[in-house]
Amino acid sequence: MVIKMVKKDFIGKWRITKMGAWDKEYFDEEVPAYIKIEKNLMGNFHFGYVQGEIDGRVVKRGGDEFLEFTFDGNDYGGGDDVSGSGWMKLKGKNNAEGEIKFHLGDDSTFQLRRMK
Fold it and tell me: Looking at residue 7, what DSSP letter applies?
């Protein structure tokens, strides 16, 4: 069975449940870690001490649709401005996976679950 994903399927608030580079104790340090995507594919995220604004677009690669995004924000743990890019791919209606890459810095995979 082929499930057709569309732009609206990315919209919503997503709970970060797992990150490859950081453990739950870190990524939930200040708030329950999340990524939020609005109707215009802009949004924001917060994990650990990092907060940022997202600018996204849906692209098709190899028959799959991805939300690719750039971001700009701050790492309040170190006081540094941060920027970078990432992507998110739906895994059914309520789960997703992706990766975030900081310009000249760390990168991490992540797992997401849609919040109600």
Answer: G
